[in-house]
Structures are given as structure tokens and as C-alpha cells.
Here is the input.
Amino acid sequence: MEAEELMRGLALWLVAALMALLPVPAVAQGAIADPALRAKADALVAILDGRGAYDAYFAASFREKVPTAQFAAIVAQLKATLGAPEKIESLTPTSAWSADLIVAYARGTASVRLALDPAAPHLATGLLITGTGARDDSLAKVEAEFGALPGASGFGLYALGEGKPAPVLEYHADVTAPLGSAFKLWVLAELARQVTADERHWADVVKIGPPSLPSGMLQTWPAESPLTLQTLATMMISISDNTATDTLLTTLGRVKVDAMATAAGGSVPVMTTREMFLLKGDPALTKAWAAGSVEARRSLLVDNAVKISTAKLDASVFAGKPVAIDSVEWFASPAAMAGVLDRLRTADATTRAILAVNAGLDPAIAARFRYVGFKGGGEPGVLTLNYLVQAKDGRWYAATGNWHRSDDAVNELRFVGLMGRVLALLAAR
Here is the structure.
């Protein structure tokens, strides 16, 4: 269900956990690259073109985390989006043995972070693709590329201020689409509402509920470990922790979360992630859910509550083709998600800080904004990305997009690149 882990890690910049596995040191002022770093960077072009020797280029520690087949899939997605890699356009050292690179492709560029082992033969220990861009770009070109995506897609770019979000550019922005974990923005919005209403406080402590599947880490913690609401919310948004999400949803109250989802233009009833996993993994429940009304679906969850809370969950349902993405999902349109982001923008500082922990964006683009908040989501065949940004001049915007297809997986690199281009063009306005 989750773009960060269950889609085999292809959208690397969405995965804080994976970023930690591919460490690249922070920028050191005045850093000077060792000559071996420059040589290794030049050799990366062949690697990204699928011609280089993967085992001879990367250290064993990297190859264990990113197998050859996974890396080959990422390279293929990049080439499908940008054409063939041609050269290293720029190299900015962050230390003697690490650098930020711009790789020139036939139709655009890729931002890459590279780190080497200081010991000879200086194998690559870290590689992170942080974003892509097109040459001579425009919002019209982005819109055309959205229209060329197989399956269904939509996006919206909105100026935020007084009143409703004002469209800057929309493509199928009023069409409802599956959200994946982006539904967690509804949960955050309801928590922020209850805090503002003094019904709850960020420091309130609750015990974590039944474990869900990853993404996240709380599923492995001791049962009923106590955590503050702020900690749970931060884990829910920044690493998309499913157990944290389910704990918050049930703590806040299902009726109230449903009311928030309805107000935000979303689908109800709002499933927990554990419910979603079980419904997708049980064909009979999948069929009943798809055929049921809102009230019938609520009854289905109540009638199967014991089974849902005790059944062993099977993540393999997300290892292949898309499963029931037109029914067992959470749904809203890009325009509706922009409204949720606007609601969160006007909440308190803690809410905005939680959204900003994981920017989900090429750092070079993120640096061009004063603030970046993010939540994405997905499963096989589904990907959604939602950004709340504040420009350097203080103006606020929401950029929301989705892509889904029931016949196959989506190209995560291609879609993340499209949304990154929207924000890069916005930053340049």
C-alpha cells in the first residue's frame, strides 16, 4: 500500500529510511574533491546508461541494500523519462569523497548525490537520485506529459490565501482518484482541529494500538508502548508509519475522522491501514466492500472487527499487479487535497512543522522555497504526491497530483519528476 516501502523502493527520494541506508555527508564549506571522486563521477555516466560494471563500481554495503535488478529498474525508468545519460554537467563537492552531481541526459537532467569509500579502490558507498528536470521546461509541457501518462492522472497547482485555493493550473483536478497513504492528511487535519479546540494536546500520551504492516517502525515496538500524539503524528507523516496512523485514527474517533474526510472532499468510511490490508487480502471481503454502500461498508468493518484485529496480515498482496485500487482505497481529487493542505497551512506551527520533516523533494528545488511540507502515498498502480510550499516572497501554494492504472505499476521516477518540475517552475516564477 505504501509508496515508500511496498513499491520496492523505486521512488528513492520518498523514503527517509532508504536515504539513511545510502548516506551522503552534509555539505562542507570549501570542500575540495579528491581526483578519484571526479573520475568516479565521470564513470557514473556509463553506470546510469546500463553499460558499466555494477559490482565493480559499488561497494558491497551498497549492493546489499540495492540489488542489481532494483538498480537496473531505476536506471531504466530514468532513461525512459530523460533519454540517454550524456555527461556530468556539474560536480559540487560536499567533502573530499562526496559530491552533488547534475547528470545531463538527452532530454533533461538528474540531480544525484554520490559518496565514495576513502580507501582504495574508492568504491561507491552511497548514491541517491534526488530529482529530475526537463530542458526548456514549461507548465504547458508538464500538462502535456500528464496527459500522456497511461491510465488516469490529475494534478493541480493552487495559490493559497484568503478564501478557497485559486487554481494556477489544473488537469483533471476535480476527478476523484485513489490516494494511498495521503489519506493520512485527513487524520492530521482532525488532530490539528482537536488541538485547536482544546479537546486534545500535542503532549497527550496514548498507547500504540495493534500493529499494522510497514511502512514505519512501530509495528515492531512492544505492545501498548506510550507515545505522545505529536510523536505519533510526526511518524505518521514523515515515515508514513501505519501503526501510528491506526492508533491516531482510533484515538481521535472514527466518526470525527470521517467527518473531517467528508469536509475535505474525501471518501468514507476512512479505513485504518490494517483494515485496508486485510480487505485487499481477502477476496470475499474485497468483493463485499466494492459492492457496498457507505453504511454497508461501515457494517462490514464492525462485523469483521475481531478478524481484522487478530488476523495475520500478508504483505505479498502488494508484491505484484494492482489489487482493487478502484474500491479498497481512500479517494479524493487533487483540488480536494489542495483544500486539505490549505486547512493544514492555517493550523498551528506544530502541524506545519510535522509536515515539513520529510520534504519529499529534490533538495535543490526545496532550497528555493521558504517552507516545504509533504505527504505522498501509493501502492502498486497508485502514486500520489501532495506539497504545501511557501515561496521566498511569502506567498503560499499547494501542488497535488495523482497517477493510477489498474493494469500495471506506475513509473515512480517519471511521476516524481513531473511533480518536481511543477515546483521548480513555480519557484522560478
